[in-house]
């Protein structure tokens, strides 16, 4: 499989990228981003691109891919709705449209989050905008999926970009074994998220909006022998 990853320098994206690179069935991973990952790997190719509303300049490099794992996102803390919408909705839909035009059979896996509301009735700005993004993606392609993890534990050595998240993960990461036993339906890891994406890219899923339990179940499936 040939995979495209957005947001590979973020906490979730780092884990998803690592999972893709270690999978035997993945032959190439193309990372599209504004900053380099700092990684080197025989399967890894990086494409630096600045304008995430227009992918026309790199259109020729988007063909022939099997899946896109879209891990790009930002915290809504301190942001107004207009700016948050550009990053969350506009960037995501621009990428999906460009990729599906170049690779029509591509699976598009979008990392959303628990609490996302696709009804438009919530007062929480981030939940409403993410819900609109999910709805637009699901309408755009039958092979689009929204992943709504609750709490995602990072790979060892992975660093979050947001200071509040750095502090949060520093406090709760040692509690992961306990939380996995007590509240397993709300806990996953970046590795499990990456494995779930790969499984769904291979075989699809009965649901197109996946909560944490769905993600962990998909991650537990072993891929077929090459």
Description:
The structure is a single chain. The protein has seven helices and nine strands. The chain is an alpha/beta fold. The strands form two sheets. It has a seven-stranded parallel beta sheet with strand order 3-2-1-4-5-6-9, sandwiched between helices. Helix 2 (81-102) links the parallel strand 4 (67-70) and strand 5. It has helices at 11-22, 81-102, 125-140, 163-172, 176-182, 190-203, 212-220, and strands spanning 2-6, 28-33, 44-48, 67-70, 107-111, 144-148, 151-153, 187-189, 209-211. 40% of the residues lie in helices and 17% in strands. The protein has a single domain (2-219), classed as NAD(P)-binding Rossmann-like Domain (Rossmann fold, 3-Layer(aba) Sandwich), CATH 3.40.50. Helix 1 packs across helix 6 (190-203) and helix 2 runs parallel beside helix 3 (125-140).
How would you briefly describe this protein structure?
Residues 3-101 form the NAD-dependent epimerase/dehydratase domain. The chain is α/β, with parallel strands linked by helices and 226 residues long.
- Structurally, how many domains make up the residues? 1
Low-pLDDT ranges:
none
Average of pLDDT: 89
Integer-rounded radius of gyration: 17 Å
- Quote the beta fraction: 15-25%
Helix/strand order, N-terminal first = EHEEEHEHEEHHEHEH
> What class, by secondary structure content?
alpha/beta
Main β-sheet: number of strands, strand sense, barrel status?
7 strands, parallel
The quaternary structure here is single chain
CATH fold category name: Rossmann fold
Span from first to last CA? 11 Å
> What is the global morphology?
globular
CATH class division: Alpha Beta
> Mind telling me which CATH architecture this is?
3-Layer(aba) Sandwich
Helix content: 25-40%
Number of helical stretches of at least 4 residues: 7
As laid out across the biggest beta sheet, the strand order is: 3-2-1-4-5-6-9
The named CATH superfamily: NAD(P)-binding Rossmann-like Domain
Total number of strands: 9
